[in-house]
From TrEMBL:
Its cofactor is Zn(2+). The lineage of its organism: Bacteria, Bacillati, Actinomycetota, Actinomycetes, Pseudonocardiales. One of its GO terms (molecular function) is carboxypeptidase activity. SUPFAM superfamilies: Zn-dependent exopeptidases (SSF53187). InterPro entries: Peptidase_M14. This is M14 family zinc carboxypeptidase. Pfam families: Peptidase_M14 (PF00246). Coiled coil: none annotated. It comes from Lentzea rhizosphaerae. PROSITE patterns: PEPTIDASE_M14. Keywords: Carboxypeptidase, Hydrolase, Metalloprotease, Protease, Signal, Zinc.
Length: 828
């Protein structure tokens, strides 16, 4: 029956055929602003964006087998004269839906689907250009796509080559959207045979604007203050989750991420280091060739401003524009089979240029940028069409190697011009990872759901099994590394590497590890016999439980942000909880039903409590923090009021505040007399938690704990080994933490407790070198106090973090440390 159906389908198809702060200059001047140590200077605020949104939703997203075209009656938005694109003579967001609606009425080659909403509720548009398909033909294309993912060959002449163009992920890098609009209109309306034939062989997907809130407001970040091009491994933002779904479902052979602005235009591939999990031989051949093709296309435009495009692989020093981290669109997309690029168009029109240059000059520059974006898109579409059979085979081979568990290939010098020893980054894939509930059931479930959402295959044991001499219970999760997207699984679960000695600088973070930083218990099975009876996971099994003895008080250990959320939920109900010296939270036996409700809601587990504890009330936090930290605190259930030097100087009511959290945007000496008096009065009764350079400076200026902060190299970052103490914050913490512009504390006064020290080997994965003068390196940090606690002479309980426990909403296993610090400092 299957052969008959396939034959019918084949027949049918054949017929249709940054500036930085003044005190610490980063080593890499090319780093984008907002992603270096200057993040300590600007505090998050509750959003001041406004949006006049029409509430009528567009039609529901199409079933993936619906066929094409997929016409959606897009909701339209009121004209917004404040849209920052208008000054540049570019397309304001409110103009997009009417244009797309009109094109859908005019052409049967264009389809528009709403694939999500931004933080402010603006629609995210996936625009597809392809020749019409019946549902039967679409089902066949999906079967081809699935076969390629399994590493099986498909008839290249029948598979529509997918290309994905992502635009405007940084809101104030606008012109990718406008270049895409030109290409979309051409493909939808041109009647020449070449265009029609191209769309018989291809599907061209456009994420028209990945960051509509930033586009309108003229900000790099989204409405929540996140750089979306740093969020793919974590997927904390709705816009990133929409992009993740696009790349998974479309499985592009090639993709572009359109950015700005680099003089002359920048076209990947990158310099070393290259991600060590890639089958890089399958990337660099076509990656470099199409890079050269895009260069020629841009030069052919004749714009002097783009006469000499820069290809980092060919033109830059190692590390300046690296391909290491899976946090960027292009680097992440490679794990889904794409030959991918970041494109940096040439003429700056944002930030200072936007505010200072005449409108006519800005529009001239924007026109050049739009031409360049359009050219790179057209060149890439043509390249894929010209090399479609080889690209399909290339992607198939990547997935085949993963499923077969084959080792990475050794790439010879000169594989492409310039390829040499400095380009070789490889890893050895283990046979499997095993995820258990040993430490934190919510963390294990979250990690499993996260892996599955990223198209990593996970199985759940239906009965006990033994692997590597260790016995695992039924319900354990196994990531069999013989799977198509093993590289994506490994980049999330492996430790990573210390690459400090391999390159002098890095563009952004160099270390991450869901295994070490997300709080789950994960074992590595390197190699050997593999016998396991499991069932594919669609979603992790529920983890909540109340296991305490009937009639007894219940205990909850703070191992995860979900535990903190459960505690804050109970406190919000007015339930009288207790906090014990080791940080355990006690729920009265009479509130067992409430405990059962939050156990089910948050997936947390209650056990029988020991006697004792101090009364615990709900904590209200005044937070001078970054946007990432603000999101974590609120996700953990805390009531947070954002503050800064400016807010305090304008007058602030401290009467309901229990804890002050300082990491960004608060400078004690810059407070006026009234603000300083109000803060000083709070410090006689409230708690304080600080993080980073701004927090350490606040501690010194406010004369809280005797602890001298020492700054490590400003660009140092990654996963670090730590040794935990037995104080209120160190107890039960993970043996790893995360740092970015790390600090440590010396000259500790009497009564100051070391909660956590850097290990004798500091970096587990990342990049941490000494400064040119020899200071600030790993050797200097080894064994030093990374987190300390104590009571100030004012009476305030204080915790100082030299680590980054909430960085970009990523190191989720560290959030419990923060919660324990808040509950301890806020409790008298």
């Amino acid at each position: 029956m299957r052969r008959t159906l396939l034959a019918v389908l084949l027949a049918v198809t054949a017929a249709v055929a940054a500036p930085v702060n003044g005190t610490a200059q980063p080593s890499n001047p090319d780093r984008e602003p907002g992603n270096g140590p200057e993040r300590n200077e600007v505090a998050a605020v509750d959003s001041a964006f406004t949006a006049q949104l029409v509430q009528a939703q567009g039609e529901n997203r199409a079933d993936r087998y619906q066929g094409y075209p997929r016409r959606t009656a897009l909701r339209t938005y009121p004209e917004n004269p404040a849209d920052k694109t208008i000054k540049l003579n570019l397309a304001p967001y409110h103009s997009l839906a009417p244009k797309l609606n009109a094109l859908q009425q005019k052409s049967n080659r264009i389809s528009v689907e709403v694939v999500g909403q931004s933080g402010l509720g603006r629609d995210l548009y996936l625009v597809t250009l392809t020749a019409p398909e019946s549902p039967l033909q679409t089902r066949l294309q999906e079967q081809f796509r699935a076969s390629i993912e399994e590493g099986r060959k498909v008839p290249a002449g029948l598979y529509k080559a997918p290309v994905w163009i992502n635009n405007n992920i940084h809101g104030d890098e606008w012109e990718g959207t406008d270049g895409a609009l030109r290409v979309i209109e051409h493909l939808a309306t041109s009647n020449d045979a070449a265009t029609k034939n191209l769309l018989q062989r291809s599907r061209i997907y456009f994420n028209l604007t990945a960051n509509p809130d930033g586009r309108v407001a003229g900000t790099r970040q989204n409405n929540a203050g996140f750089d979306l091009n740093r969020d793919f491994a974590t997927s904390s933002q709705p816009e990133n989750r929409a992009m993740r779904e696009i790349v998974e479902k479309t499985q592009p052979l090639m993709m572009l991420d359109e950015h700005g602005y680099v003089d002359n235009t920048l076209i990947e591939p990158t310099t070393p280091p290259h991600g060590q999990n890639y089958d890089f031989d399958l990337y660099v051949k076509h990656g470099y060739a199409n890079g050269l093709a895009m260069e020629k296309g841009v030069q052919a435009l004749g714009h002097p401003e783009a006469a000499k495009p820069e290809i980092p692989f060919r033109d830059y020093d190692p590390g300046v524009w690296d391909g290491w981290a899976p946090i960027y669109t292009a680097q992440y997309s490679m794990y889904h089979g794409a030959i991918s690029y970041t494109i940096e168009i040439p003429q700056q029109v944002n930030r200072q240029a936007y505010d200072t240059l005449p409108a006519a000059e800005l529009q001239r520059r924007a026109k050049i940028n739009t031409d360049v974006a359009e050219s790179t898109i057209k060149t890439t579409i043509d390249y894929v069409d010209d090399h479609r059979a080889d690209l399909i085979s290339n992607q198939t081979e990547m997935f085949r190697r993963g499923k077969a568990g084959e080792p990475q290939r050794e790439i010879p010098d000169g594989f492409v011009p310039g390829f040499g020893p400095e380009d070789r980054y490889r890893t050895e894939f283990p046979r499997a990872y095993v995820i258990t509930n040993d430490r934190s059931a919510p963390a294990a479930a979250r990690l499993v759901d996260h892996l599955v959402a990223h198209d990593v295959r996970v199985e759940r044991a239906e009965r006990p099994f033994t692997l590597g001499g260790k016995r695992y219970p039924a319900g354990s999760y196994v990531v069999d590394m013989h799977q198509p997207k093993r590289a994506l699984a490994n980049v999330m679960l492996e430790q990573g590497s210390d690459i400090s000695a391999k390159v002098p600088v890095m563009y952004d973070i160099s270390g991450w590890s869901h295994r070490l930083l997300w709080g789950a218990s994960i074992d590595i099975y390197k190699n050997g016999p593999f016998h396991f009876n499991g069932k594919d996971v669609v979603a992790a099994a529920p983890t909540g439980d109340v296991d305490g003895a009937p009639g007894a008080d219940l205990a909850l250990t703070l191992n995860d942000a979900k535990d903190a959320g459960a505690v804050n939920d109970l406190l919000g109900r007015g339930i009288a909880l207790r906090r014990q010296d080791d940080g355990t939270i006690v729920v009265p036996a009479a509130e067992r039903l409430a405990a059962k409700e939050v156990a089910d809601r948050y997936g947390v587990r209650f056990t029988t409590a020991k006697p004792g504890g101090t009364a615990l009330q709900r904590k209200v936090i005044a937070a001078a923090v970054g946007p990432d930290e603000l999101q974590v605190l609120r996700e953990s259930g805390f009531d947070v009021r954002t503050i800064s030097t400016t807010v305090l100087n304008a007058g602030f009511d401290w009467s309901r505040i229990d804890v002050l959290f300082v990491s960004s945007g608060l400078n004690y000496p810059q407070l006026n007399a009234s603000a300083k008096a109000g803060l000083d009065e709070f410090l006689k009764r409230g708690g304080v938690v600080t993080r980073g350079a701004t927090g350490s400076r606040f501690n010194v200026d406010a004369k809280l704990l005797q602890a001298t902060p020492v700054a490590g190299w400003e660009d140092a970052n990654g996963v670090v080994n730590v040794v935990n103490g037995t104080g209120p914050v160190g107890t039960g913490a993970l043996p790893h933490s995360f740092v970015y512009s790390p600090q440590w504390f010396t000259n500790l006064g009497a009564g100051v407790t070391v909660e956590q020290r850097y290990g004798s080997t500091v970096i587990a994965a990342g990049h941490w070198r000494p400064r040119d003068n020899g200071t600030g390196g790993q050797d200097a940090a080894a064994g030093q106090a990374a987190v300390v606690s104590g009571t100030a002479s004012t009476g305030a309980k204080v915790v100082l973090f030299g680590t980054e426990p909430m960085f970009r909403n990523h190191p989720k296993g560290l959030y419990a440390q923060v919660a324990r610090a808040i509950f301890w400092t806020g409790t008298r």
